[in-house]
Amino acid sequence: MFYKRGSFGCRVFLFPRPRFAYIINFLRNCLSLIVKSIAPRLAGGYNHQEFFFRSTGGNAFIFVIRGFVKKIIALLLLAAFIPSQLFAWGPKGHAIVADIASSRLTPTARKNLQLLLGDNSLASIASWADTVRKERDESYGWHFVDIPKDAPGFSDERDCFRPQDKHKNADTDHHNCVVDRIEIFQKILGDENASTADRLEALKWLVHFVGDLHQPLHAVEEARGGNDIKLPVFGSPKCGDYDCNLHWTWDSLLLEHTGLSEEDYVARLNELIAQKHLEKQAGGTAVDWANESHLQARRILEQKPASIDDAYYRANIELVNEKLALAGLRLAAALNSALGKAPLSSSNGTHSKF
Prior knowledge:
With about 350 residues, the protein is an alpha+beta fold. It has two domains: about 1-80, no CATH class; about 80-340, P1 Nuclease (Orthogonal Bundle). About 45% of the residues lie in helices and about 5% in strands. It has twelve helices and six strands. It has helices spanning about 15-40, 70-80, 90-100, 105-115, 130, 155-160, 180-190, 195-215, 245-255, 260-275, 285-300, 310-340; strands spanning about 1-5, 10-15, 50-55, 60-65, 240, 240-245. A four-stranded antiparallel β-sheet has the order 1-2-4-3. A two-stranded antiparallel ribbon has the order 5-6. A hairpin with a 2-residue loop joins strand 5 and strand 6. Helix 3 (about 90-100) crosses helix 12 (about 310-340), helix 4 packs across helix 12 and helix 9 (about 245-255) packs across helix 12. It is globular, with a radius of gyration of 20 Å.
């Protein structure tokens, strides 16, 4: 057994996988029993700090523990029972996007945001939309937009009505895509006549969906956004209990391969923003962002490798970084627009709208 510094700034213990596989399976079974027993008590979002098991290569198994915090169990539930390839960027990537956005809010938007969130951070709710997929089945198609690979771009009529889906309301929902949902929830968030509960939920959806749309493979129909393209990743055909695939690679595996903590990743992206003057690209609409991601997804699919290795990582990590940075900048712009008005106060000095 030996250790190295892990991606979350904590100590990572490495065990030869065959020798300790039975230990890992035992711990996983215990975790499942614990989570199942407390699942009915879970509520709200979760903190982006994590406790997880992750396969590395095929030669070692990483056991990572970072401090237990309030609401961490929701993340355990998410990791234990739902394939992580369903989620763009993963919890860490979504938290990074939220961190980038949080540092670029106007004073008024920041004040109004905290009136909605209380003591919670923007990053702490960034993956809420993934945790509620099961109970909010109608939201399944809201996380992506299936633009045909060879189409010139996004079409609302073609891409946002999915009656063939078997999820709730798919046969009647004509806004069943991430593009429309970003626009809808930004309007609700900015509506001073909407209830606090509705505005808070709109915020949770919006923070997540802006991140989702900037993962290129969430904007293309081909091979279910790359989920059906199975391939080894960094020497292993398996990613945990599932076959590795191209979509999962772009969701989180390239990001995690950097070995950076969330804080260090944010610092790197802030440097990238300054170097490339990415603030100039902070505007645009959800349609613009979808077309940008779709074009990049076409290139990714056309250049799909036989396997993901360090050469592929080096060739593509800068695009991952740029997309995360742009997602954060554009999220900040959306929040500043929706929450940039001065909060209305009643005669006793309390806020009447939030």
